[in-house]
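agent> Task received from the user: take the single chain below, predict its 3D structure, and emit structure tokens. No templates, no multimer pairing.
agent> Plan: (1) validate residues, (2) run structure prediction, (3) serialize to tokens, (4) report one or two observations.
agent> Step 1 OK, no nonstandard residues flagged.
tool_call: predict_structure(input=
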Amino acid sequence: MIKLLSFVVAAATLAGIAPAQTPPAAKPYQVEWVYRVKYGYQDEFWRLFQKYQIGALDEEKRRGYVQSYSVFKPGLHTSEESRWDYRIVITYNGQDGASHEGEVTRALFPDTAALKRDENRRWELTTNHWDLPIHEIDPHQIAQ
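)
tool_result: status=success, residues=144
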């Protein structure tokens, strides 16, 4: 039996059949969400954001789609054109990890009418928003 197994391994090696290999891990993919909120409505916006977006990010992290996320709020104020109220930096486990938000949101919040109502309200309170994929670069490499 051992001779037969050795023969099969040797024959596969000679035939160029390599044993199954684990695919390389996906490169982390980072996205930055930035929000500017109507003056006086930051608390209401944040409550809605925590319920849905933070809830979904926590679940995406639990499921392994998100490595980590950080939430930032400014300590002082700037000029109106550069003002932002919340900045969230998310590190996904590869670019395809970012595609599970809808799936997770539907699983967590099956009351679609309440979800739609609250999300519409959150967007009413948002005066500016952008999602920006960000890429870490080697500070010693020449810019391309």
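agent> Step 4: summary for the user.
The helical segments are 2-14, 42-63, 101-108, 112-125.
agent> Done.
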